[in-house]
Amino acid sequence: MEDLKPTSVNSSPLTPLGFLERAATVYGDCPSVVYEDTTYTWTQTHRRCLRVASSISSLGIDRGHVVSVLSPNVPAMYELHFAVPMSGAILNTINTRLDTRTVSLLLRHSESKLVFVDYELQSLVLEAISLFPPNTPSPRLVLIANDSGAPSRAAQLDHFLCTYENLVETGDEGFEWVPPSNEWDPITLNYTSGTTSSPKGVVHCHRGAFIITVDSLIDWGVPKQPVYLWTLPMFHSNGWNFPYGMAAVGGTNICVRKFDGQIIYAMIKRHGVTHMCGAPVVLNMLTNVRSGTEKLEYPVHILTGGAPPPAQVLIRTESMGFVVSHGYGLTETAGVVVSCAWKGKWNLLPATERARLKSRQGVRTVGMTRVDVVDPDSGLSVKRDGMSLGEIVLRGGCVMLGYLKDPSGTAKCMKGGWFYTGDVGVIHPDGYLEIKDRSKDVIISGGENLSSVEVESVLYTNPAVDEAAVVARPDEFWGETPCAFVSLKSDVTAKPTENEIMEYCRKKLPKYMVPKTVVFKDELPKTSTGKIQKFVLRQMAKGMGSSRLSRM
């Protein structure tokens, strides 16, 4: 069989962009995007994307150029996930909650040629560009106008080429979109979410985006034509690649500019939502606006990830009628690559035990090649005893190409055939993985490695606690001790004291794991995707000085 080799017939580059063309053929008259009172069909979305791709190309944007977008989850944001790479360019969606200085840094680092800006964010981008050093080329700007399609009164149109709808109107729907010359060609550039203080530019290729999209649909068991509510920001890892996934299955994308718990419930009822994604903070949001006796009329599937969901939050969410799936991934993997694959026999267990099992991250998805937990020094697998800590490592087709302009950072995390995640975990005897911490969040107290996640899980069982995060505080004697930052539920009448929280933990944890400090806050600092910013809390704890000195 040595004469049988790959040819152009059987080795076309993999790309998720073809999903849109197929959706227009199969689901042409079906709704694709719904936003307020506007509904597009898949035929219309396909044509609009081709028109925008045509217009982008006519502006001189070439293959490999970076095109940035700052926008909430509105139709233009969805369409640009196809239109930008269809022009041959690389899509860079930027976190809308970043400060001016960081946005300026990212635009310069990516060398963005064109920026699509939502009308609510125009001042942010204009100020960011004003911070460019002299003689630094500025990207051209396109305004995503307000919801009626007209520029807002505050729009400084003299700074913009035109509006987004102008590009739709003037573009060619017969445009021959630009396929990747090689499936390893970059399709997206995503900057890490900001749980650390130094974002990195993660580059993904067409092949990786295709693999993670198909993999996620299979793993979550998404049927044809679901109704998907966009509670996950599309700028976060490209919405875990579900913009492409919804095209693959002909789903209906329910877009929403801003949301809270009440809006989510209203959207579920109005549109018949079947699926949604979000960080555990979204689960908290859903359970805090309704009592446990109020249930959904039908099950709604939620895929959660981004942080280990506390078991108590899972119990409350599922008691409302939601079906929660738990996954694990990183910006560097473009989506979920480990999931808590559910076993039917677990349905017979008590609710608390089901929630404990579901809070584990699980096993590799079918599209991942390998997942392991290894000793970071020796590189050897740790014991599968649920106790031996190690670093989680991954290998598979959806792992990033690398960090933009950062070969040393790329080499540091991609070595020996593995991607080193920086997450600390264990593997249980049944083969299921569980995250215990980020490597930088492990607290070493008196020589003992202490998992902040385990302490947080106990804090979440306290009925008064809404959110909790535990970080290290310096201690003269122990080196470090746990410091708990806690926000309380709004309906709590008898608010617990610091000592009462510590006493609660003493009954459930070994002595060395009990927080030595408890700080109450109205709200914990978070990224735009709901991840608690522990680096901010670590700085606050460090600023308090030694916990031992404070007790003297």
From TrEMBL:
Residue intervals of the AMP-dependent synthetase/ligase domain: 20-404
Pfam families in UniProt: AMP-binding (PF00501), AMP-binding_C (PF13193)
Gene Ontology MF annotations: ATP binding; medium-chain fatty acid-CoA ligase activity
Record GO cellular component, one term: cytosol
Tree of life domain: Eukaryota
Subcellular location: Cytoplasm, Cytosol
PANTHER family, sorted: ACYL-ACTIVATING ENZYME (PTHR43859), ACYL-ACTIVATING ENZYME 8-RELATED (PTHR43859:SF57)
NCBIfam families from the UniProt entry: PRK08162.1
Listed name of the protein: AMP-dependent synthetase/ligase domain-containing protein
